[in-house]
Structures are given as structure tokens and as C-alpha cells.
């Protein structure tokens, strides 16, 4: 059901992004207005800041541990960026929470009705949330990757290599993966409309199921893990590992999961009342 409002002078707020200020004057919106609104709403609460701090903290701890284990066990020399790429298995949940609250917080408070009054075209609301969450996640992911490389270099103790092109590629790959996780999360959040439900699905998909598949072992289960979001993402973030897919193919697999989640979320958004 599309939510609309009408004014006495015949103007309607069912145009894309149409709205009115406190003096009753019309304000322009559309997709650009929806994006600006979502950006403002995101940074007006504490959750994004806490998620970013948590992500950086997890990156520091995990990469220090990863590099120390590589040195102690005398692993072969590997790109220093592998430590940061491996930390994504934990850091992604900071991104999940950040992206999830952009949707579920509005359903829990009922403010989603105001969002749909401001932008009645529901797909624009969803796209704006996905774009903002994805952009923030990309920046956060690249920042965490840079911090992870800096932290891991010392503990590696000579078991890591640094090549500028490889390092830049891994930083961008980590950022891309986190952005796709954010888009995936927005879709799941619109489909479930509840933080517990969304978090349960995402924790199972991004961590629980891969852990079970790899724990049980075997080529068949490993092949299944390779087409799950984190399994595929790990293949284009890390360098020097035996990957069943080319980096571009692995990235497309993660993008397909994010797209599928968006389509399911949009279906629910359009079929159910706010």
C-alpha cells in the first residue's frame, strides 16, 4: 500500500520525495532527497559511531593475533593485507548492525511511516538506505583494512610482504565486501522488519553455516561454502590462496546474494503495510 497525503490547495505529497517544511512550503526531494535524509538519520544516532569504533577495535585485535600466529608457526610469507582480509569475518558484524538499524529502528518506532510519506515510492526508500549504508561500509572497510595492515606488520616478524599494488587492491576488496554485506543486510532487514530476525539470519548465513561446513570438511561442503557470501568474499579479499573462483567471479557471487536480498526485501516492503 502506498502512503499518500494531500493538501487543501490540491498539491500532493505522493510525488517522489515531495514534502513540506514547517511553513507549509513545498520542498524538493526525489532520490537525492531520500539519500540526504537517510544520511542525516544515520549520523543523528550513536549506533554508527559505536559500530565503527567496534570494527576498528576488532580489526586491531584480530590482525595482531593473525600475524602473531603466522610468525609463531612459521607460515610461508604472505601479503600483509591477508591479515586485514581475514579480520572481515568479525568486522562484518559491526557493518551488519550499522546497516540493520537503518531499517529495523524505524519499524520499531513507527517512524518508517514518515519516511514513506516523504518518499512514497518505496523502492526509492530502500535504495537510499542501501546506498548510504553501503557507502559508509565501504569507507569503514577500507579504513579497517589500512589499520589492520599497520597493526599486523610488526607481529608478522618478517612473515609478511608488502607491495603497493597488492595492498591497494586488498584494501579496496575489503571495502567492497563490507559494502556488499551492508546492502545484503538492508535487504534482509526489510524482509524481516525485526532486529532479532534479521540478525539471526545474517549470523547464520555469514558465520554459522560456513563454520559448520568447514568444520565437517570434505570437498562437497567446501564447494557449498565457496558460494556463500563470506566464503566467496574471502576468495577475492585474500591473496595467494587456492581459490576455486577468479576474484571477479567471487565478487559477483557476493553481489548476487546482496541483490537477491534486496529483491526479497522490496517484495515484502511493497506487499505489507508499514
TrEMBL record:
Keywords per UniProt: Membrane, Transmembrane, Transmembrane helix
Residues annotated as signal peptide: none
TM region positions: 49-69, 89-109, 130-156, 168-191, 198-224, 244-269
Record's keyword annotation contains DNA repair: no
Superkingdom of source: Bacteria
The protein's name: ABC transporter permease
Organism name: Streptomyces exfoliatus
